[in-house]
Request: fold
Amino acid sequence: MASYLLRNSPVPTSEKKFTFSTWFKICEADTERGIVEWYKSSTERHHIFLDTSGTLRCYSMEGGVVKINIITNALFRDFSAWYHIVIQSDNTLASSSDRYKLWVNGVAQTFSTYTWTFPQNNNINVFDGSGTRLNLGTVGEAYATWLNGYLADTYYIDGSIIAYTEFGETDATTGIWKPKTEPTIASFGNAGVHLKYENSGNIGLDSSGNGNNFSTSGTITQTVDTPSNVFCTMNPLSRPNSNANTFSNGNNTLSTTTLAFVPSFATLGMNSGKWYWEAKVYGTDMKHSIGISKPQEVLSYIGTTAGSYAFDSENARKVNNNVFTGYGVASSTNDILMIAFDADNGSIWVGKNGTWFNSATQSEIENGTTTNAMFSSITMNDYFVPAVSQDNSSIDFNFGNGYFGTTAVSSATSDESGLGIFEYTVPSGYYALCTKNINEQEYD
Reply:
């Protein structure tokens, strides 16, 4: 979708060097995804993007001539993770091979292609601030290409080279690359910015002190999914067979017009703890099979194998191992389904619009009383992931981000940890499926 941040660039401190740092999370496969763009015209532009194969690429033109074309060897295709990139670009250095450096999650990148033909110490015209726009989340003016993903903690330092270790560090316990709270930056330069994206009413607010605020083009949704706490989404790469589901809204919306059930799995799994999520259903046919599955199951319809358990929303049935039994109430468009999965005792409950099916009560679910559960005594000999199959229908998942599509939930109730945002009351002791909650459940 054509949503991004933009501003006219002021006269910079330098037209020769800069440092750029941002976290990003991708949500589309097999398409170009723009991260940042300096754009003056079709013949004067500089942009950084992921190409269709998943490589990171820097491409720059001046006077209609390609001056920079740099492509990483590594591919970046993980839809469940945040990536952190740091770019140092310095045309004052003697060797052209030293003038562009790139780190991803603290690892220096090597390149399959490296072309840099700007002469040493020459100004790069697109950075001169004369009619240049700085766009974040797109290379849209050049190629009509948008990130269609997430950005977090974005820095552009004009005129200075800042070490990549100022922006991130390796966690001593997990070994995972994580953000640093306060990088040491003496000067952002005239054109420099720092976007925290924390003000929902002014998402493009510049925190550098320069006041280089961005305007918004399109609809940008603030999310609680961050590099420090990654929330579950549906996964375009985790599909048991080739299918026609279209993924959007951060991979939380799935749609298909195919007249056959197509399955999709989520990014985070569960084998212990208590978890809650919601799904809003739509569609011409209103055919959804929603529940949990082992990720390696090969199936078209969730529930038709021994390792998958689901609610058939069209016909009000529960299904496991291809055995269908009457359960619950059939769904209509805009109904919100609630799912509570107790992986500690292998039980799952489903409800609709605030009422649990089969006369189950909130206290039963909280106490682990399985009399009215959809399924109980599930053998927890593997991880289970949220899963859905649908036919000519659509579904919006809310794993705690607080949105169905781009519409915020109206009630904004919290899970046990206060990290997730949901429409209906979450049973006490149940959590949103995100990395902070998983870590607390596993290591508390």
